[in-house]
Amino acid sequence: MCLVLIAIGFLQSWNVAFGIFNLCVISAVMALGVNMQWGYAGLFNVGVMGFTALGGLTAVLVSMPPVGDAWAAAGGDIALSLLSLAGTIVAVIYARRVVPPVLKLPVTLVLLLAGYFLIGVFFGPATDAIESIDPALSGYLGGAGLPVLVAWPLAGLVAAGAGWLIGRIALGLRADYLAIATLGISEIIIAIIKYEEWLSRGVKNVTGIPRPVPYEVNLVESEWFINLANFFGASEISDAASL
After folding, report:
1. How many C-beta atoms surround the C-beta of residue 88 within 10 A?
2. Can you tell me the distance from the alpha carbon of 123 to that of 103, in angstroms, rounded to the nearest whole number?
3. How many CB atoms sit inside 10 A of residue 188's CB?
4. Is 74 exposed, middle or buried (0-12, 13-18, 19+ CB in 10 A)?
5. Which residues fall within 8 angstroms of residue 95, CB to CB, at 6 or more apart?
6. C-alpha angle with apex 75: 159 to 88, nearest 5 degrees?
């Protein structure tokens, strides 16, 4: 494989060779993770792509710059809908602790329905407004605008945290039942990411995630790189950068 990549670099392009190598490394890391679960632990988890999607979503939400127009249009309504969701959860938990057992089910249903309609008052119009902001290029809230090197470990932590939470629920199952449960959870996660365009553009994809290193064009124009190249005798770098 190493010889093939070297041949591609010399005969075609080093960008292509390093791109293939990058995909190989990503696939190897994912294969190691699956081997730990399926092989060493003996847990047949088929929801791996759901956790991978959560990691990718976290990287987008951390590293991409915020879309100011989208936040101005409906950022407040999104915040209100999230507060309504949190309030509904707290109200249901509190009610189930204090109401008599015979009333737990009807009170829970009433609170859930009330919370659902309250969230819809803010959430529906907010998502429509956000997705209408330049849908070809943005149409979502964007992220925090932090360096992508910060996004990578956070993405791993979010995926691991989701795995721990789901594991506490699903690890009581075994064999086929665990596979079915994890597959269902994975599909739910992927469906949410796919159809909630206000969050991550859905199937339109987010492009232009900042790189941790400069682009090649910017690199050859950098003074420190030109000086380094000249130090090693590559004077033509200066000529190319001055064009």
Report:
1. 18
2. 30
3. 12
4. buried
5. 104, 107, 108, 111
6. 65
For the chain, what percentages of helix, strand and coil (3-state, to nearest 5) are there?
Answer: 75, 0, 25
Q: Distance (Å, rounded) from C-alpha 95 to C-alpha 107? A: 7
Residue 142, beta-bridge partner list: 66
Query: What is the tens place of the pLDDT at every residue in 109-151?
Result: 999 999 999 999 999 999 999 988 888 888 898 888 888 888 8
Q: Which residue has 């089910």 as its token pair?
A: 105
Q: Tokens 């494989």 appear where?
A: 1
How far is residue 222's CA from residue 214's CA, in Å, rounded to a whole number?
Answer: 10
Give the pLDDT means over successive 10-residue stretches in the chain (243 positions): 84 84 87 79 77 88 90 90 94 90 90 93 91 86 88 88 82 76 86 88 83 74 78 59 50
Cα 112 to the center of its chain, rounded Å: 28
Give me the pLDDT at residue 165, please. 85
Q: Which residues pair with residue 66 across a beta bridge?
A: 142
In this predicted model, what pLDDT tens digit does every residue of 192-210 receive, in sequence order?
Answer: 888 888 888 888 888 888 8
The rounded distance, in Å, linking the Cα atoms of 93 and 90 is 5
Helix or strand run (H / E) with residue 108? helix 104-131
Alpha-carbon distance of 219 to 241, in angstroms, equals: 10
Place of tokens 């269902």: 184
d(CA 122, CA 163): 30
